[in-house]
Amino acid sequence: MAFDYNLEKQHAKGKLHAIERINLLCDKDSFMEIYADAQHQCTSFGMDKKTIPYDGVITGFGKVNGKKVAVYAQDFTVQGGSLGKVHGQKIAELIAKAIECRCPVIGLNDSGGARIQEGVDALCGYGEIFRQNVRASGVIPQISVIAGPCAGGAVYSPGLTDFIFTVDKISEMYITGPKVVKQVMFMDITSEDLGGAAIHSQKSGVAHYRCPTEAECIEKVRKLLDYIPHYYGDKTPFEPKEKKALFGKKVDFKYTEKKSAELNSVLPEASTKGYDIREVINRVVDDDSFFESTEEFAGNAVVGFAKIEGKTVGVVANNPGNLGGILNCDASDKIARHVRYCDAYDIPLLTFVDVPGFVPGPQEEQKGIIRHGAKILYAYAEASVPKVTVITRKAYGGAYIAMCSKHLGADFVYAWPKAEIAVMGAEGAIGILYAKELKDPNNAQLVQEKGQEYRATFMTPTIAAQRDYISAVIEPQETRARILSSFELLENKSVSDKPLKKHGNIPL
Ligand code: HXC
């Protein structure tokens, strides 16, 4: 059936129409709509006289960069894109079909939430979507674009998906809108401040990407789809366009050799000084290939995808340029979630470590740093993909273990010569070991000597190397070649010592 799309009504709100969004997302003329004639069965509140085109949501399959995808787009011009039973059924069935067809699902959300006239039938529509979201998890990537309001229980379908994209001044996500907040909490707040793109990208960590316009947002979705496998078992993103010999000296696949040399001078002279870990990442992976995720949330950790010789790897790093790279609750959640995503789709993990530890003190303890930090341990220990770790500088205490150490199952661990692998930094250690002596100013000389001894003994990668906790101490400029060789060696890695179980119990 052909419909007259109400483009003007949507444009008046400063937004693209559902069909325009689909056309931007999918390769030209590739979209094939299904369930277009589906209609609501509601008779209350005058609904028996109302026809709702495609019941407010366009569903179908298309192609992105030549590969198939499932897409649904809620049309806000049709009864506010509200979700009734049939609308929900269409989305749930699309996800179920996508599981069978082994292709990612992209949801373009723009809806006033549960269709009020349909009552509990609308709620059941959500329930069916949630169930399919969970069935699909780990089978096919699920991507949500928040292209308008997303209120009430509606936020939980995006919340169950793998990646959430937001757009400035357009995205709204909240459990209850500003009006309810006013009624219940007597608080005036705008939609933007309650659940706008910036809030969810910077503070709540719910959103993975924030874009200035819808067009840029959809372009970014297309880019992400170029990095990730399109279903569990999809090997295509790992096929290098050109193969290089193992341990070969030529490592110039979309990569300038000069960058390797620059790695030698990335670290600041003083080990207490911060630097942006992206300066390292960008000099190791293929040129311009680092595609960061959750960039604005928990900046003390950096995660994303990159290509090495054309193959996708998942990147995880501490960032000494932000809070010294220390691990807190938010950074732990960010890292653990990314590690689990990569492991679910067999994306090899590349970890860069420069971490002074977990944040001490009551604030983070009360937030549950034990529970959150444990997520990193769990995620890395569980991950059976190839895991390569590079310790650029600090690797202290529990954080050394947590950041994909050999002990948690890293396949290769490389340390730069300035690596400091120890229980803690020199000042902290001397403060504990020589607490009594420190009280007496006459012991200043002794304490200084002990500090030097501690630094000489522990502030190096030597002991870890002697115990074979690290695979090799390497010059920074060797990093890319080592990583490349390691991943090539691990290409057919398989882990067969998993004890029989239903599923584990990650600390949530
Ligand atoms: C039915 C709805 C609707 C809804 C909007 N419309 N939301 N119809 N059910 N939930 C209709 C409006 O009546 C209007 O119809 C048209 O869509 C456009 O809506 P407006 O209000 O004019 O648009 P706008 O001013 O832009 O405001 C957008 C909005 C507001 C902020 C989203 O519509 C709103 O607050 N809607 C209710 C949000 C909400 O609380 N939803 C329920 C959440 S609870 P006409 O005919 O005039 O064009 C929930 C439970 C799920 O979702 C639980 C799952 C577990």
Automatic annotation (TrEMBL):
Q: Which domain of life is it from?
A: Bacteria
Stored InterPro entries: AccD/PCCB, AcCoA_carboxyl_beta, Acetyl_CoA_COase_Trfase_b_su, ClpP/crotonase-like_dom_sf, COA_CT_C, COA_CT_N
GO biological process terms on file: fatty acid biosynthetic process
**Keywords carried by this UniProt record:** Transferase
Outline the extent of the CoA carboxyltransferase C-terminal domain. Answer: 255-489
Q: Which SUPFAM superfamilies match?
A: ClpP/crotonase
According to the UniProt record, one GO cellular component term is:
acetyl-CoA carboxylase complex
Which residue numbers delimit the CoA carboxyltransferase N-terminal domain?
A: 1-240
Q: Which GO terms describe its molecular function?
A: acetyl-CoA carboxylase activity; propionyl-CoA carboxylase activity; transferase activity
The protein here is known as: Acetyl-CoA carboxylase, carboxyltransferase component
Which species is listed as the source?
A: Treponema berlinense
